[in-house]
Amino acid sequence: MLPNAMLKDGFLNDNSQLRVFLDKNENPYDVAPALKEELRMRMQDLSFNRYPDMENRRLREALALDAGLDADNVTVANGGDEIIQMLFLAFTKPGSNVLMLRPCFSQYCYLCKIFPVKQKIVPFKLSAGEVSFDEEKFLDCLSSYSPDLVLLDRPNNPTGKSLPLDFLKEVIRLSPGVVLVDEAYVQFGYDSILDFYGSCDFPDNLVVLRTFSKAWGMAGLRIGYAFTSLNLRKALERVRSPFNLNIISQEAALIALKYKEWMENRVEGIRCTRDRFIADVSKLPGWRAYPSAANFALVESCCDIGTIRESLRINGLEVKFLNPAAFETEGDKRNKTWLRVTIGREEDMGRLINIFKNLS
Ligand code: PMP
Predict the structure, then answer these.
(1) Which of 105, 185, 222 to mutate for ligand 1's pocket (most ligand atoms within 8 Å of CB)?
(2) pTM for the full predicted model
(3) How many CB atoms are closer than 10 A to CB 225?
């Protein structure tokens, strides 16, 4: 059996400090203890020998109620990752065009390679502390490439940029194929594409992805879901494996919804830590953090990657290093080091700022 210290959050590093993982955009906080206790009690009544409800009916109804939609607008999956995979299965064929911004969630590019489809890209530009992209160019690509699938993460991973809602509405209106609006981090921002559509007028080509992995702090349980029209849901159902979400995760999600306020308070705390972290980093000479609507921030540094990596290793902190080739940047920015830093606890971010300070 694993020792308790290994099962709990974090591992010890060489200096016996707790290692801190700021590399996977996880929530630094586990769920409410009362939620776990409810789940533990509920497990006594679950029959592990039975398959889950193939329709995921109770969970779909609960998620629909929470969003003001119908159960027929909801598809649940084994993490948001599975929803994305289902989209490739349902709506692309080898050689299809798939349009996206770059950089974006790495899984989009990975799936483009294995399916295989043609990746069409409009790049983000980074200049003067701003993340931007050419909206007109993106809209033009809808007619010139006629993509079967458009993939947009809002907020974008790894820049933290929240795409303008008017732009998204135009993409949905003009797109000849299916449009994914990936809202994995939506609770850390302030609005949603769902604010514009109800059950009756849900666009037939829109998929809104959500997950319990980020704001809800339940990444280990692998619960993702999608809001779509009824027609689009039928297409997703054709490629969904029948018992894709296990009974424990289904129960956990149902119980979690009762703790929405608890989750929102945690999210508010993470937002404050994020905004403080971004301000603190940007005060350091040679460092800059970009504004973010998610639970991570894009950081740019003049310091070389090897030095940063070693310093983080010694201090037991993990962040994600990004390939500079993924960005369209001006002049000297090509020589910079790029990191994506997940927002952890206040003390974790303090430790990280001190490391950056020593390198600046
Ligand atoms: N979308 C985006 C933009 C993500 O960053 C992630 C996970 N990092 C996911 C979807 C998938 O999340 P999960 O499979 O944990 O639900």
Answers:
(1) 105
(2) 0.95
(3) 25
- What is the residue-wise DSSP string for 273-322? HHHHHHHHHHHSTTEEE---SSSEEEEEESS-HHHHHHHHHHHTEEEEEE
173-195 mean pLDDT: 97
Angle of helix 305-315 relative to helix 346-359, nearest 10 degrees?
140
Q: Which pLDDT does position 5 carry in this prediction? A: 45
pLDDT recorded at residue 129: 81
Please write down the long-range contacts of 16-20, taking CB distance under 8 Å and 24 or more positions apart: 17/315, 17/316, 18/316, 19/316, 19/317, 19/318, 20/316, 20/317, 20/318, 20/344, 20/348, 20/351
- Above 80 in pLDDT, residue 18? no
CATH code of domain 33-259: 3.40.640.10
Looking at the CA of residue 84, tell me the nearest atom of ligand 1.
10
Residue 335: predicted pLDDT:
81
Average model confidence (pLDDT) across the chain: 94
Average pLDDT over residues 133-148: 97
| Cβ 157 under 6 angstroms from ligand 1 | yes
8 has a pLDDT exceeding 80: no
**Ligand 1 contact via 219 beta carbon (within 6 Å):** yes
For 261, the token pair is 């306020």
The verdict on domain 4-31+261-359 having CATH code 1.20.1250.20 is no
Domain positions in the chain: 4-31+261-359, 33-259
| Tokens found for residue 290 | 């970009």
Burial of 42 (0-12, 13-18, 19+ CB in 10 A): middle
